[in-house]
Amino acid sequence: MIRVLLADDQALVRTGFRLILTQAPDMAVVGEAADGEQAAAMARELRPDVVLMDVRMPSVDGVEATRLIRAGGAGPTRVLILTTFDLDEYVYAALRAGASGFLLKDTLAADLLSAIRVVATGDAVVAPSATRRLLERYVPAGAPQAAVTDPGVLTEREREVLTRVARGLSNVEIADRLHLSEGTVKTHVSRVLAKLNLRDRVQAVVYAYESGVVRAGAADH
């Protein structure tokens, strides 16, 4: 069973999500939180697989709650951000804080359940192209922030793969562009994540922009 914690300041929204999740035979709602502080505390106590986190809440918002959860104390719990607003600074901040992706609150029930399953396996659910647009908007061109791990640890091929991941290409598209098999691309992506201590594809995209491997607004070659 995938254990899910709901975090939203609106009780009706939580009720709606609970009704959807209870219809899934492989999911169980283990708790509900009305704000970010409560969500972080419940995540530490309950250790759910996934937290469905509203990004905008009073007091402690979803961004800070995500940071608290990912900083430690909640084990392998992953955060899926829910927002009414597509591609805004709150979503960007949440991705930087360690969220494994984001969905709009009007996402179809089937897509929500699918996203929870993907995140629970350790992958990311944000379309890379959407993440790229978000980053190009909020990361200043030519002004990368210091990266946690030096990109110099990557081989030239791994760097090429990371660049294309950041540009929104799928594994199939990267394979075609670099004349590799899809399996080989998957292996390279896995090695990139391991070498850079990144959780998933979303974090790889954030890293690529903030480390300067990819410049906002630059064209892909």
From TrEMBL:
Residues 3-120 form the Response regulatory domain. The keyword DNA-binding applies. The keyword Phosphoprotein applies. Gene3D superfamilies: 3.40.50.2300. GO terms for molecular function: DNA binding. Residues 147-212 form the HTH luxR-type domain. PROSITE patterns: HTH_LUXR_1 (PS00622), HTH_LUXR_2 (PS50043), RESPONSE_REGULATORY (PS50110). Pfam families: GerE, Response_reg. Keywords: DNA-binding, Phosphoprotein, Transcription, Transcription regulation. The modification 4-aspartylphosphate is found at D54. This is DNA-binding NarL/FixJ family response regulator. The lineage of its organism: Bacteria, Bacillati, Actinomycetota, Actinomycetes, Micromonosporales.
